[in-house]
Design goal:
This protein is 46% helix and 15% strand. By secondary structure, it is an alpha/beta fold. It has one domain (10-253): NAD(P)-binding Rossmann-like Domain (Rossmann fold). The chain has a seven-stranded parallel sheet with strand order 3-2-1-4-6-7-9, with helices on both faces. It has a two-stranded parallel sheet with strand order 5-8. Helix 3 packs parallel to helix 4 (104-132).
Length: 284
């Protein structure tokens, strides 16, 4: 079933009190959609939406890594709105630090949120979507889900994993009329690069001075990013409205060319390694 036009669409959005999630929730409410929005602080979400009509908002304080809390949140959304048409897995945070400097705790925390939390949401969303033979799951990855930079190893690891999860999911649910989209934003003018959303390795050394410079450059970049969150919100709605569209969609011009270059580079590597790859078969 396509995106509903005869009634307000019902959205379930995670990570809703900051960044692209907040921009999306504000945009949806302004268009009359019904929104269940998860956050770690409903007070912060309500304050951020002070100038928006929140009649159609269900604000939910949820720890996405707690499966029981996620299941309860979906039940509340279905009880309030009757169904969920679109799920947006947007919750997450950035992390900068060399691979060697990244602690096991940081790795666990990142993967618990980006992968474990997303998985909890997907498991809760799918049974009613399958029963309705409709629905759309949008997983917000990053341009760093297809290419990587020094210092972003942990964040890239999480986003690369999210992309793989999403590819498998798309193939598994296609027969149930459920769409899956991966959204890969570049840099948008949100608080993603502020201390609220960007963690930095705590135990650093003098072995990676280049990464210290990268950290400084990104902190100084905040407020000057090219991407407009309001335009991204509108783009997410357009993605939800389409059926049979491409699995991936980049947002922002800043890194789009880099994505093309990564694809070309990957193909060149595959072709260069073809003979060695084929040489490992049993000789017939």
């Amino acid at each position: 079933m396509p995106y509903p036009t005869d009634r307000p669409a019902v959205w379930f959005v995670t990570g809703a009190s900051r960044g692209l999630g907040l921009a999306l929730v504000a945009h949806l409410l302004s268009t009359g959609a019904q929104v269940a929005a998860t956050t770690r602080s409903t007070e912060r979400l309500q304050a951020a939406l002070a100038e928006v009509d929140t009649t159609n908002l269900l604000a939910l304080e949820v720890s996405l890594t707690d499966e029981a809390e996620v299941n309860t949140a979906f039940k509340q959304a279905n009880d309030r709105f009757g169904r969920v048409d679109v799920v947006v897995n947007n919750a997450g945070y950035g992390y900068l630090g060399a691979v060697e400097e990244t602690s096991s705790t940081a790795v666990t925390d990142m993967l618990n949120v980006q992968i474990g939390g997303t998985w909890n949401v997907i498991r809760a969303a799918l049974p009613p979507m399958r029963a309705a033979h409709s629905g759309h799951i949008i997983n917000v990855s990053s341009i760093l889900g297809i290419l990587s930079f020094p210092g972003w190893g942990l964040y890239c690891a999480a986003k690369f994993a999210l992309e793989g999860l999403s590819e498998s999911l798309a193939a598994e649910v296609a027969d149930y009329g459920i769409e899956v989209s991966i959204v890969e934003p570049g840099y948008f003018r949100t608080d993603f690069l502020t201390d609220d959303s960007l963690a930095v390795a705590a135990d650093i050394s003098d072995a990676y001075p280049g990464i210290r410079q990268i950290v400084t450059e990104h902190q100084e970049m905040s407020g000057s990013q090219l991407g407009d969150p309001a335009q991204a919100a509108a783009a997410l709605v357009s993605i939800a409205c389409r059926t049979g569209g491409p699995l991936r969609q980049q947002l922002g011009s800043d890194l789009s060319n880099m994505a093309e270059e990564k694809v070309d580079s990957l193909k060149a590597e595959i072709l260069a390694g073809r003979d060695l790859a084929h040489s490992t078969d049993y000789v017939r």
